[in-house]
Amino acid sequence: MLNTGTIVRIGKGSVALLHGSGSVASLGQICPSAGSPSQFWSPAGSIGGQIRSSEASQSHLCPNSFRTLTQYRSFTSSITSSSHSNPLGLPNFKPANTNLGVKRSLSRVKHILLVSSCKGGVGKSTVSTNLAIALRNLGLSVGLLDADIFGPSIPKLMNLHGEPRISQQGKLIPLQNYGVQTMSMGYLIPNEDSPIVWRGLMLQKALQQLLFDVEWNDLDVLVIDLPPGTGDVQITIGQMLKVSGAIIVSTSQDLALIDVKKGISMFEKVKIPIYGLVENMSVFVCPNCHHEEHLFGKDGVLKEAERLGIDYLGSIPLNREICSKSDEGFPIALSGKDGLGRYYYEIAEGVTRHLRGEGEREK
């Protein structure tokens, strides 16, 4: 544990405590970059867990050095956790107000946008990530919260890893990349292969902590990437948060559209405005002959939006480059409004119209 004001010198395979108090005996092996005999590192507050490479700007940790300091946060990805009220093990934890009759705002967050899919496997997380980046590049300050506790995708899509720091108020500090602040359960588990084995109560409490115990920094909009379906996460958010609106991602396949109708009904019951529908994987264009094939049906999402009187925010093709860039942690929206990125900017512009109250219809 290193206390406030502590400064350590990171040398080749060694650590020296220069100022402050604490123990660095268990820090592990340090690997300075070439041409850098030593670096100085000073935590912003009393922090445990790991020393992140971003804070020692010209040095990096060996892979085996992660989690070598005494853990500041006791996290148990198991139903055997002794603290169901604090599953993330946050210090100075105070349970959130669980009065389901009172919806709460998030501190320093103007708008909350939910991205839902109802049916799994339709590319919702890819849409959430690219939408967040597009909104950021349109001039908004944006956060991205991964609410898929059991299957977090945002760390991979945003090319982020490592455990978040803890603020002096005992809250999680978001990890940031591409100008977007992010938080995900994927940052809090020991490694990406570790399963979360929780029943409903633990899931609900962990979600509440991700909602109310993250120190966001002045956001115009927080994009929340929901898990598929209409289960505990959706109900908890709908009952506890003041949400500006939601968009629903789907393919035109009949099986997916059946679940879209269920999702729309759920949002109506918890009085969350529906900004519109997004059609993903709308068409595949052969890179050789340029033949267009509508693998999941044609215009199903558009027709459903028209039938329900909901905005059709746009469509995104099924494209190899979108997939590969997502896997690389370089979302295609980073390429700008030209090329394949334009589809996400069209959706982002539709969302901003709704945030300003200019949408065609808010249910």
TrEMBL record:
TM annotation in the entry: none
GO cellular component, one term: mitochondrion
PROSITE patterns associated with the record: MRP
One GO BP: iron-sulfur cluster assembly
Keywords, ordered alphabetically: ATP-binding, Iron, Iron-sulfur, Metal-binding, Nucleotide-binding
Organism superkingdom: Eukaryota
Protein name (record): DEKNAAC105153
The keyword Cell membrane appears for this protein: no
A GO molecular-function descriptor: 4 iron, 4 sulfur cluster binding
Pfam families: ParA
The family this protein is said to belong to: Belongs to the Mrp/NBP35 ATP-binding proteins family.
SUPFAM superfamilies (UniProt xref): P-loop containing nucleoside triphosphate hydrolases (SSF52540)
